[in-house]
Amino acid sequence: MLFHCANVPYNEMAQKLVPLGESVMEAAKGLNLKVVAVDGIYPYGRRQMKEVTEEHPKQPHTRKGKTRLAFERMLFEERWDSVQKMIVRLPDYYGPTANDASYLGSTLAAIAAGKTAFFIGNMRVPREYVYLPDAAKMIVELAGRDDAYGENWNIPGAGIISGKEIVRIAQKASGVAKPVISLGRAGLSLLGLFQPVMKEIVEMLYLTEEPLTLSGEKYRKRIGPIPATGFEQGISETIRAWMKVK
After folding, report:
1. In whole angstroms, what is the distance from residue 243 CA to residue 246 CA?
2. Confidence band, pLDDT 50/70/90 cuts, at residue 225
3. What is the pLDDT of residues 152-205, one digit of tens each?
4. What is the DSSP string of 89-150?
5. Global pTM exceeds 0.90
6. Where does the pLDDT of residue 103 fall: very low under 50, low under 70, confident under 90, or very high at 90 and above?
């Protein structure tokens, strides 16, 4: 079994994401391995349901969403019919192993280090986040079931939470309350002059203004209860883990 979790920087996604996936599929085909591709919610585009099911239309309006959809279509092309595969879709995520690989990871890492932090997007709008240990449990459960392949699966979080509440919990756990600066279009564009990847986040800010929440109904019906670590526990555990590393 092969878990395809590798990613590429935003500013290289259009050129490298699909070729990377093709290499993974070629290897899986040659080695007769199943493939579990870990992906995000960009292909859904703007929310058209209160809770987004796996049947939500895929109508991406961003370059990254269109690239992600091209990746999915490649995965299910006829040339890979001999390979059993599935796509699991996560919302924004966090956890002791996330670090700066996620929007929230870099924020929590800075808070744990007692530094001024940046928060991407509107801090007042509640959004969905999944705790990585919970996501891993669900993905491994799906990977072990033959009847789960050939499909898309949502991996939902424990609910929604605002950035302000995240910061409150994180600072309480760290014992330090340095400033946390919200980054919108202007701030990201300015930082993008020095860090190209930051400029690439701008087109995805719609997800911080019109949040998309995943439905876990399919998972509950066919697999069972969804692991859902509460934010107070998950964020505190993440902060404490990084403080130990420091």
Report:
1. 5
2. very high
3. 999 999 999 999 999 999 999 999 999 999 998 888 887 776 777 788 888 899
4. E--EEESTTTGGGSHHHHHHHHHHTT--EEEES-SSS-EEEEEHHHHHHHHHHHHT-GGGTT
5. yes
6. confident
Q: Rounded to an integer, what distance in angstroms lies between the CA atom of residue 232 and that of residue 238?
A: 10
What residue ranges define each of the domains in the chain, with the CATH number in brackets? Answer: 2-245 (3.40.50.720)
Q: How far apart are the first and last CA of the chain?
A: 34
Please state, in angstroms and rounded to a whole number, the distance separating the CA atoms of residues 219 and 89.
12
pLDDT tens string 105-127: 989 999 999 999 999 999 999 99
Cβ proximity of 111 and 170 under 8 Å: yes
* Per-residue buried b or exposed e for 26-50, using 16+ beta carbons within 10 Å of the residue's own CB: eebeeeebbbbbbbbbbbbbebeee
Which residues lie closer than 8 Å to 241 by C-beta, 6 or more apart? 96
Tell me how far apart the alpha carbons of residues 213 and 32 are, in angstroms, rounded to a whole number: 35
Asked whether the predicted pLDDT for residue 99 surpasses 80, the reply is no
β pairing state of 127-131 and 35-39: unpaired
Two structure tokens written together for 13: 């996604």
CB 54 within 8 A of CB 195: no
SS3 178: coil
